[in-house]
Specification:
Two copies of one chain form a homodimer. Chain A is α+β, with helices and mostly antiparallel strands and 211 residues long. Chain A folds into two domains: 129 residues, Jelly Rolls; 67 residues, Orthogonal Bundle (Arc Repressor Mutant, subunit A). Helices cover 36% and strands 25% of the residues of chain A. In chain A, the strands form three sheets. Chain A has a four-stranded antiparallel sheet with strand order 1-7-2-5, with no helix packed on it. In chain A, strand 3 and strand 4 form a beta hairpin. The longest helix of chain A is centred in the middle third of the chain and has 26 residues. At the A-B interface, helix 3 of A face helix 3 of B. Chain B binds a DNA duplex (30 and 30 nucleotides) through helix 5 and helix 6.
Amino acid sequence: MINLFDNISEKEMLKLKKILKSNSQIFKKNVNVLSNVNRDDFIALIEYGSIELIYTDYEGSKTVIEELSAGEVFGTLTSSIKNEEISCFTKEDTKITFIEYDQITNDDIIKTDFYIIFIKNLIKILTEQLNTRNIRIELLTKKTTRDKLLSYFKYIDKKTGGGSKTIKLPLSYTELASYLSVDRSAMTREITSLKNEGFIKTKGRKITLLY
Amino acid sequence: MINLFDNISEKEMLKLKKILKSNSQIFKKNVNVLSNVNRDDFIALIEYGSIELIYTDYEGSKTVIEELSAGEVFGTLTSSIKNEEISCFTKEDTKITFIEYDQITNDDIIKTDFYIIFIKNLIKILTEQLNTRNIRIELLTKKTTRDKLLSYFKYIDKKTGGGSKTIKLPLSYTELASYLSVDRSAMTREITSLKNEGFIKTKGRKITLLY
DNA sequence: AAATACTTGTTGCATTTGCAACACTTTACA
DNA sequence: TGTAAAGTGTTGCAAATGCAACAAGTATTT
């Protein structure tokens, strides 16, 4: 996973943050980060901690769009935060650096050596997020829970190198059900069937793929 | 919807394309655009015509990820095209301009006046695509076909200005079923129920929202 | 260390959904 | 223009899924 300041030294990074007129804030656990934030276009970088982006629809029902942790980025570029349909809650004590989007092309920064690196990092981050979304869409369009699970396991396997055939789930089963948008109990039922039919073996969150 | 060359004059655009060493190709209908394309990082701009991005999973089953038309952009930045799981077919005669990603930071272009405009356009495009994906994820995570439909209609209403209460579907019902990942006949059944229960009225692809 | 909050597995039952098959209409194109 | 292809509406039936409720296990917090 790429970081906004990859290939930029610590020293340059501090300089860059200053030129960008960035502003850092520390939030306690379970706090709505965007409640008093100016919703002009901005980029938010998680320095430490983690957050959840939550979408609330016209009926008031909520969906977790994404969970992000240290080093990751969110903001008006990656979610339609402006429309106030998206809220952002800390999952633990979290420090966030805010950068106004317009600043990324201010006169001072354009003159720096590392401007192009910074921009390329930003583009790369957006690209990675797009791929993340594409994969989730691909999983969500599967017709059955079984297909969702088998495809998800393959995806994790591939992402973590592939070949080993034993994967470790990066989420709890409860979170996985939510990610795949299936009822948790129905999902557990399906996992039990997959075990009985010899597709997988499980031990806690470790899953051995036999297909 | 933003275009890669928005706020850049025709003349500058031609200059820019030259500096970027871009390469244009015309494809007939129903052709696999990426079959002989170098899959290094690239940006593809649809000059005219339209295409479909199709994902093929490990089992060989296919999902349409996106349909794109004139002015829109795809490429390794917006989909994991490199892994060859994604193919791209023309839906009609289509002209595409390819730009190698590394060229967007070549020495000549950085010196031009419109470089920052170009980069901002590119970032904006990626951002819009992310929002498009977020919305689809939001719809796909709805538990019932009814919720998917009602939310989708609201979304189209909002996207096209809102308020009028009569929307025109931008896709066929068959395509909509695929987009929402539900069985077409089951979806039609649900639409019929929605009509009977007074949530909507329909006339072809025109739908009046009464909720 | 106890209390409280989350996670996981299980099951019966009602509901929703997908599937298959068909008729009819509309659109594309040779 | 006539034929093929694609889109739409409908229905019965089987299968998959969501829901509710509960028990037991793990983590967290104070």
